Amino acid sequence: MQNEREFDSLEQQQAVFGTQDQWIRMIEKAFHVEIGLRGDLLDIRGEHAERVLAGTVIDSLIHLYNRGETIRDEMVARLIEEAENGSLDTMFEAMDSVVTMNYKGLPIKCKTMGQQNYIKMLREKTVTVCIGPAGTGKTYLAVAQAAQELKDGDIERIIMSRPAIEAGEERLGFLPGDLAQKVDPYLRPLYDALNDVFGPDRADKLREKGIVEVAPLAYMRGRTLNHARIIIDEGQNASLSTLKMALTRLGENSRMVLTGDVTQIDLPRKSDSGLEKAAEILKNVEGLGILRLTNRDVVRARIVKDIVKAFEKAEEREKRFRSDQQGSRSRRPSHFEEGKKEPK
Q1: What is the pTM of this model?
Q2: What is the rounded distance in angstroms from the CA atom of residue 257 to the CA atom of residue 238?
């Protein structure tokens, strides 16, 4: 790996350095190197291994610029992480996977290998169960894939549903309006994904024609859904019996995806969540795939990935603490072992 690089143009150099050299500063901090310009040449100084990694990230930024990609803070952070893990090649392979084109004519692409595996499973399996943290694109990519299937004529409609469960201390009964108006805010993330893919106007028309349907999960009972892509979102907030009901709605020439984040259960008792239980029960069913995304697949703002990691560490500490407490109680000697007499 060369220590020096020559840019093709001033624009390319500016894109790689970022505003006020912010991208270069991120690379310097990550790999403990010094990066500067000597005339038209970019020079990297530091330990050999760190120079190699920094150079790989810079080469990747040049490659992205030449491809016409917009370089953002989270993109540079992801390049740094993938370089450290030795997986830049797989990242670029994933980024070549175009799911569909949005209403602006721009490609919707996978950004991680986990997302690429998700799309592959959506295309190959009749039922897909995808479990992962916030920001991994579970719902958005499912909508994008459904949009492409609709364009290709593989399905006749898209049906999207999620449990109308309150998060935190908010309650449906305090919201104004009838039942439909009360549950509508809980379906808003599905509307947002539809608007991003189809555009607000076309999304509204598709819903008016019944080609796209968005409804609370409870409304699925008793139906048989044919020639459709069914997206069940927020599955962690449904009981096992409710998920069984939803999964058995699948009709002729239909496919379903069930998504959820088991770290964000809003049910009064977390043990009532049926998502992990359903995944365990269904793991050997032919035609059904189960995929688990991780914090490495988070593609929102960089801080979201850091937040997910922080909570994962805190939850792991809590599990270890509880395990130690239980172990301590199980090892505690009885009063017989302590020399006490058996009470009469």
Answers
A1: 0.79
A2: 14
Instruction: Using alpha carbons, list the distances in angstroms from residue 4 to 21, 26, 27, 38, 67.
Output: 17, 18, 15, 9, 22
Give one word for 188, left, alpha or beta, with left for phi > 0 and alpha for psi -120 to 50: alpha
**What digits encode the pLDDT tens for the residues 303-333?**
776 787 788 788 788 878 877 777 766 665 5
Beta strand 107-109 with 34-38 is unpaired
Q: In Å, how far are 97, 142, 189, 217, 297 from 136, measured between CA atoms?
A: 16, 11, 14, 22, 5
Strand boundaries in 163-308, DSSP class E: 212-216, 228-232, 255-260, 288-292
Q: In this predicted model, what pLDDT tens digit does every residue of 161-187 receive, in sequence order?
A: 998 775 544 444 555 555 556 567 778
Low-confidence ranges of the chain (pLDDT < 50): 1, 168-172, 335-336, 342, 344
Q: What are phi and psi of 231, to 5 degrees?
A: -115, 110
Length of the chain: 344
Q: In angstroms, rounded to a whole number, what is the distance separating the alpha carbons of residues 108 and 97? A: 9
**CA-to-CA distance for 332 and 157, rounded, in angstroms?**
61
Question: Could you tell me the two tokens for 262?
Answer: 């088991």
The DSSP-derived string for 71-102 is: P-HHHHHHHHHHHHHT-HHHHHHHHT-EEEE-
Query: In the prediction, which pLDDT does 336 show?
Result: 43
What are the structure tokens assigned to 52, written together? 């190699």
* Tokens linked to 266: 């809003």
The residues, any chain, with a CB within 8 Å of residue 203's CB and separated by 6 or more, are 191, 194, 195, 197, 212
- Tokens 């139906």, residue located: 223
Pairing of strands 288-292, 228-232: unpaired
Q: What is the DSSP letter of 38?
A: E
CA distance 216 to 11: 49
What is the C-alpha separation between 132 and 117, in angstroms, rounded? 13
Q: What are phi and psi of 105, to 5 degrees?
A: 85, 15
Residue 100 forms beta bridges with which residues? 108
